[in-house]
Amino acid sequence: MPDGFAAHRHTAGGVSYVDVGEGPVTLFVHGVFTNGRLWRNCIRMLSGHRRCIAVDLPGHGHTPPMGEPSVWGLADAVGTVVRELDLRDIHLVGNDTGGAVCQVVLTRDTNRFASLALTNCDTEGNFPPPRFVPAVWAARIGLLRAARPVLRAPFLAKAILRVGYQQPWYLPDDVVVDYLGPILGTAAGTRFMEKLLSSMNPEQLSAIRGRLAECTLPTAIVWGTGDLFFALRWAQWLQRLIPGASPVVEVPGGRLFFVDERAPELVAALEKHWR
């Protein structure tokens, strides 16, 4: 199955992104081990009346490893797209590590944003989540490259993605390969991911707590309650921290990547938030 948005792909400062539709600017940011295609179902539903931009973070999708392999470097890449396209009144949406990236991006240049929406994502004190720590340690000792054979067996990759999807077997094979190929398929991609994962520590996001605690931007927190990594209490922590946050919207049983497989529920919550 080909990438339905390939004709809408562009590059800004070396960062690849898709840009579909017209209307209020909505910027989607994915996390580790996925890419901008995570948002494909949301974009299909929204691009008729919104300008949907989905970035591929460095070392993911069509963006090569570049910049500092850390949450700060990923935020630099998103900031590059924002500045080069001179985006204003942006509605920012993040998932997983992309949610942490959104928090950093927002606190650097709040005036460019109209609203924020965070789904299951990393936060201060939970970066990385305890259940993800084994992957971090594997990266630190160079074991990530041992996972390369899964690229030749999409069914095995889907079994691994069960940690984030309720029904990963419905994922198109080409999406799975697009997720993992840039990371596991090249030595440079693997090294970048190893460094990125190794950079994570629970207090890393404490530097932006003060700015988030002053953020009155309208903020939606939409959270899958079946997530193995990001428990509901972290959504509640964000809601208490950010003055502009509305009450948490729960997606019963949703896992980390519910933004893909249960996109209609997320879109409904976003549309209500934007109204």
List the helices and strands and how they pair.
Blueprint: E1 9-12, E2 15-20, E3 25-29, H1 40-46, E4 51-55, H2 71-84, E5 90-96, H3 97-108, E6 113-121, H4 133-140, H5 154-160, H6 173-184, H7 187-198, H8 209-212, E7 219-224, H9 232-241, E8 249-251, H10 258-261, H11 263-274
Parallel strand pairs: 3-4, 3-5, 5-6, 6-7, 7-8
Antiparallel strand pairs: 1-2, 2-4
Number of helices: 11
* Quaternary: single chain
Approximate strand percentage? 15-25%
Q: What distance lies between the first and last C-alpha atoms, to the nearest angstrom?
A: 35 Å
**Helix proportion:** 25-40%
Give the low-confidence spans: none
Topology, number of strands: 8
What is the CATH architecture descriptor of the domain at 6-125 and 205-274? 3-Layer(aba) Sandwich
Main CATH class of the domain at 6-125 and 205-274: Alpha Beta
The class by helix and strand makeup works out as alpha/beta
Which word captures the global form? globular
Q: Write down the CATH topology of the domain at 6-125 and 205-274.
A: Rossmann fold
Task: Supply the CATH superfamily name of the domain at 6-125 and 205-274.
Answer: Alpha/Beta hydrolase fold, catalytic domain
Summarize the biggest pleated sheet: 8 strands, mixed
Widest sheet: strand ordering:
1-2-4-3-5-6-7-8
> Nearest-angstrom radius of gyration?
17 Å
Q: How would you state the average pLDDT, rounded?
A: 96
Secondary-structure element series: EEEHEHEHEHHHHHEHEHH
